[in-house]
């Protein structure tokens, strides 16, 4: 017993010494001092080293997309690093293809600012801004989906393309000690510049969705940045439009439908929307109104969890079943999809069986 106690004491002492060494190393050895960052050979600033590149840019109000909030799981926060980035890390490799590596692209959330850096960032990303706003209204679309109308403060206005998204910031709250942000597609018409509308579903243990569903109230102040994303209608085309979404993936589709209305785009458009039960058909009345307003638009909901006893006389199954039922081929068609990675994968597979290719399938997937 005495020997065990001595061993435990030695191990505890070693652990304490190791923790002290790590603390000192972080304070002194890992003190990178001031670092210079040059973007596109134009914009230049000096920062204190030690943080991730993503966070460092955020502090300078330069916002890169990051659906995962900088956790290294979405792969969206890429930027070019031509000098000073160090070797590519194992946590980056699954998100970087051969072309990315040739173009010196890195995940900014994984790169720590340790020395001077030279970056290349697309100009459209440099136009993303931070917005202060107030929650004007909250509507419960279902038990797990909320519709937010967020009024932008201080006379700011936002310009975006239907299909793009913003990153909503959740402040610290009980159970979450730090700020965190997540990406949500804009559901409102792009003609509305003084507010954005978001459709946010509850995800168990999701940090921002928990904040939105359990803490956020009408009248609260919020922050978001953006807009981001290259998921939008190919306006130069005259092809028929196939829209496919499930759940909160309806958000960017709604914004695109308003675009068809406001810009008098009369292309034949079919919207396949998947849900579990009839009560999960969010904004169904709006979709039916679009059918009345847009002469070439049809709304085709499909339910996956209805029984023969349910009074549902519409399509049953999944959106892939609707694709099989209603789409014969890909002739003069474009498909726009928004949903979970599993839904996107299965729908794209079915579309390709019908003759679609990567050139006429566009999608926005969320985890």
Automatic annotation (TrEMBL):
* One Pfam assignment: NAD_binding_1
- This chain's protein is named Na+-transporting NADH:ubiquinone oxidoreductase subunit F
What are the record keywords, sorted?
FAD, Flavoprotein, Iron, Transport, Ubiquinone
Kindly list the GO molecular function terms attached to this UniProt entry.
iron-sulfur cluster binding; oxidoreductase activity
PROSITE patterns given for it? 2FE2S_FER_2 (PS51085), FAD_FR (PS51384)
In this chain the FAD-binding FR-type domain maps to 128-234
Q: Which residues form the 2Fe-2S ferredoxin-type domain?
A: 33-125
């Amino acid at each position: 017993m005495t020997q065990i106690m001595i061993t435990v004491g030695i191990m505890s002492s070693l652990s304490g010494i190791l923790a002290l060494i790590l603390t000192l190393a972080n304070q002194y050895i890992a003190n990178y001092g001031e670092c210079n960052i040059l973007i596109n050979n134009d914009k230049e600033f000096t920062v204190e080293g030690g943080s991730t590149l993503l966070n460092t840019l955020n502090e300078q109000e330069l916002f890169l997309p990051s659906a995962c909030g900088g956790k290294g799981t979405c792969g969206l926060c890429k930027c070019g690093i031509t000098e000073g980035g160090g070797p590519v890390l194992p946590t980056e490799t699954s998100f970087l293809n051969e072309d990315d590596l040739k173009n010196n692209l890195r995940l900014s959330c994984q790169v720590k600012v340790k020395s001077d850096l030279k970056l290349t960032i697309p100009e459209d990303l440099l136009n993303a801004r931070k917005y202060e706003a107030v929650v004007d209204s909250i509507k419960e679309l279902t038990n797990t989906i909320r519709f937010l109308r967020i009024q932008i403060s201080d006379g700011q206005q936002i310009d975006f393309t239907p299909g793009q998204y913003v990153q909503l910031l959740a402040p610290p709250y009980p159970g979450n000690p730090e700020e965190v942000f997540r990406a949500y597609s804009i559901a409102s018409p792009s003609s509305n510049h003084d507010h954005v509308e978001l459709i946010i579903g509850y995800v168990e243990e999701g940090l921002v969705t928990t904040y939105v569903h359990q803490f956020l109230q009408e009248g609260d102040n919020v922050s978001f940045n953006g807009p981001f994303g290259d998921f939008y209608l190919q306006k130069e085309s005259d092809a028929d439009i196939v829209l496919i979404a499930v759940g909160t993936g309806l958000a960017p589709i709604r914004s695109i439908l308003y675009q068809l209305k406001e810009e008098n785009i009369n292309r034949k458009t079919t919207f396949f929307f998947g849900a579990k039960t009839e009560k999960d058909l969010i904004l169904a009345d709006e979709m039916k109104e679009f059918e009345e307003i847009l002469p070439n638009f049809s709304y085709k909901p499909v339910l996956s969890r209805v029984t023969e006893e349910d009074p549902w006389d519409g399509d049953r199954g999944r959106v892939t079943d609707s694709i099989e039922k209603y789409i014969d081929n890909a002739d003069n068609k474009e498909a726009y999809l928004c949903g979970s990675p599993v839904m996107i994968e299965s729908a794209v597979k079915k579309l390709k069986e019908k003759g679609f290719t990567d050139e006429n399938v566009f999608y926005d997937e969320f985890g």
